Amino acid sequence: MLFSSIPFLFYFIPCVVILYFAVPKCLKNSVLLLSSLFFYGWGEPRYLVFMLISITQGYIFGILIEKHLGKRRSKAFLAASVLFSLLLLGYCKYADFFIDNFNTLTGMSVPLLKIALPIGISFYTFQILSYTVDVYRGDVPAQKNYINLAAYIAMFPQLIAGPIVRYSDIAKQLENRTHTVSGVALGIRRFIIGLSKKILIANILGELVSVFKASDEKSVLYFWLYAIAYMLHIYFDFSGYSDMAIGLGHVFGFRFMENFDYPYISGSITEFWRRWHISLGSWFRDYLYIPLGGNRVSKLRWFFNIFVVWMATGFWHGAAWNFVLWGVMFAVLLIIEKLWLLKPLKKLMILNHIYVLLLVMISFVIFDAASITGALSYITAMFGGQNIPIVTFESVYYLRSYLIILIVAIIGATPLPKKLAAAVEKSKHTGLAYNVAEPIVLMLLLTVCTAFLIDGSFNPFLYFRF
Amino acid sequence: MSIKFKNISLVAMTAVFLCGFLLWAILKPTDPESVSERRPLATFPDVNGESVLSGSFMTDFEKYTLDQFPLRDQFRTVKAVTAFYILGQKDNNDIYIKDGFASKLEYPLNSDSIEYAASRFRFIYNQYMADKDMRIYLSIIPDKNYFMAEKNGYPSIDYEKFISDMRGHMNFAEYIGITQLLELSDYYCTDTHWRQEKITDVAQHLAAGMGVSLSAKYIVNQADTPFYGVYYGQSALPLPHDDLYYLDNEVLKDCKVYDFETSAYIPIYDLDKTKGNDPYEMFLSGSKSLLTIENPNASTDKELIVFRDSFGSSIAPLFAEGYAKITLVDIRYISPNMLGRFIEFTNQDVLFLYSTSVLNNSITIK
């Protein structure tokens, strides 16, 4: 089930919220767990088994790790849990990638497993890994209550698209949290803003991306339009989802970590990765980069650590070489910045932003490509290397048709609207008007989002020309 | 307004919005069809173990919730208004409006589709006409985009290439061009079709191209019901309606239309259809696979076979004056393989009369 769907907004959420606030405190986590299982099972009924097995192994190994803390057995249990999680993830997500490459290298034809990737497996696997590692490190006590642990791992607000919530961050909230009207209102506000980012910006830009891909009349302008649209689409799609997850967390009394912090205003790639998908970046830092030695090692080993982390980051996003290339590209850029560029970039007030936006845009072209060859073809086309016209009638039409959305998206990707809203809210002259207008504007946004969702079912009779 | 009151207001308004529509959706009766989209709407899906485990129940339930959502058409209007007037998009679901005329983007030129349509026409020619003394003609009706797309900055197909390709694929037919006789006002504002009262010159030109002279005068009648064409519903915007006119004279009054599907005679103009979902169906009762128009007062024994789409419904009666019998075939609804059972191909004139919209989306042709 998607957040941006009618069944979720008008059936699932009202029922779950009513039930959640109707039951006593001791049953709230049970309601969360059951509703999360329903939420997950709605889209993937067969894959509930995978998730429940993962949760159960995390629960058992967590207790065993804690029981033998400080002993070798504890490490063995941790290794077993990590291995189990990674093997399951590897089987579901990467098996066909390895078989395909094996076949290419050897000329053999080992049949592909063709496993449909269980939704959210990358997210919940990382949450289980962080939980067992944190227990092993002694950072958190093992959770003895299965329902609480399962509610944490399966919690529907962050189950399918993050943010990757650390157990240590919400362990106390799982046991004891408060629910207030202001918290619920904050959550609703955040959710509607996220929903609007997803439906009114990301989805529309996604249409432009699809139109571009289907076109036979590409031009240099069209490639740039696509690259910019995709770059904004992926930001508003992902950050919109994170906003919705964080908002839902607030409604249920949880405080999830922020996942995005206006990444496109970054002055360096290093800064970009502090602002983009923060929960993933910090996860790899804490559970891979630092255990590998981080930067407190020889320079060569440091570079190796960076490469390992970024190849893993790329591979986490998808089982294809273009994702690996995408990760390696960032590894190279980060090393170059750490060695030479970080200081000069700070002095280049405008050029540093252009540098970041250009490279990030290229990285997302690679990210979106079906293959490395496809990515290179797109990138060369952007720079006039494909013998295509600079402009076509079609590309100008779509530029005109999507211009306002693009401008809104570009402004929305900066902190400007938030700062403006805060200034208006705090002002003596406009504060009252702001407080009156805010709920109305949010309701209007919800109405328009609903309208866009309903129009998604627009499906005129094929024979309408009769 | 205090922050506390603002928060309470927001929570209350959201609860009313979500729960209100939930209750409304549950309690409202199921709508069988969408008039604006001219299609049946999804109904509540069957629930059983297999449908749940396969996920088909969930997929169908989502379709059901979307199709049966309260105020669905009004929400579609909100979306259209937002897309056009707030987000500045040039089209909404490929529908655009210029100078009061609504049209659907017909783009890009689909060469495979044209080739496929031509291959089906060639099959008919080879099967029934190649060894006969028959005169074969082709004419292509431009869609509204021909007149309004490019000049308003909308992408449109290269019509010259389109017609040239079609002529190239159908070298067994003589081409009769009609684009020069048409203009945007010859089409309905809210519909894809041309207006019968504006195409008498086109009928005369086509007939002349086939060696037949037409000179009849017609009385212009207006249907009582306002005509909201297919683009009215699809645009979801409050466009003004069209008026539906039809032409009549003594010749047409005596003509008899035989419907092979129902084995019955039907009227040329079925005015009851003007009250239905698609009033344009009043012309020869809409989508019919095989019809004949017999003119008992014809001064000739010439016959015409028209392979046509829906545009043919309104122009075909205007040929009646010049032919004793006109056979109308729509191979979207009848397989060309079966035509020999119903039509004796001898020495008739044959006209392939198709709109660019159908030729560019010819998947529906059998």
Task: Give your account of this protein's structure.
Chain A contains 19 helices and no strands. By secondary structure, chain A is mainly α. Chain A has three domains: about 5-175, no CATH class; about 185-410, no CATH class; about 415-455, no CATH class. The radius of gyration of chain A is 24 Å and the shape is globular. Mean pLDDT of chain A is about 95; it is low at about 460-465. With about 375 residues, chain B is of the alpha/beta class. Helices cover about 35% and strands about 15% of the residues of chain B. Chain B is built from 13 helices and 14 strands. In chain B, the strands form four sheets. Chain B has an eight-stranded mixed β-sheet with strand order 6-5-14-12-13-11-9-10. In chain B, strands 1-2 form a two-stranded antiparallel sheet. In chain B, α5 (about 110-130) runs parallel beside α7 (about 160-170) and α8 packs across α11 (about 310-320). In chain B, about 40% of the residues are buried. The mean pLDDT of chain B is about 95. At the A-B interface, α1, α9, α17 and α19 of A face α1, α3, α4 and α9 of B.
